[in-house]
Amino acid sequence: MTEKTANLEIRLRLKGGSGPNSNWQWEIVDAQGGIVKSGSAMGPEHKAFATARQFKDKLIKAEAKAR
Length: 67
Prior knowledge:
alpha+beta
């Protein structure tokens, strides 16, 4: 699963487990393909994606303040 906005993309990969014990690895990648932030989350896919999206939103807000 991926999502692209503001030149940042969320990449989500299943690393192990199933159902509520799923282990997801997420990465926020910039336009050049460099990893800006990475992490992991346990549970269903939608919860792991929401965790990554929160970090992505924080990065976008921090970038806007820096301008």
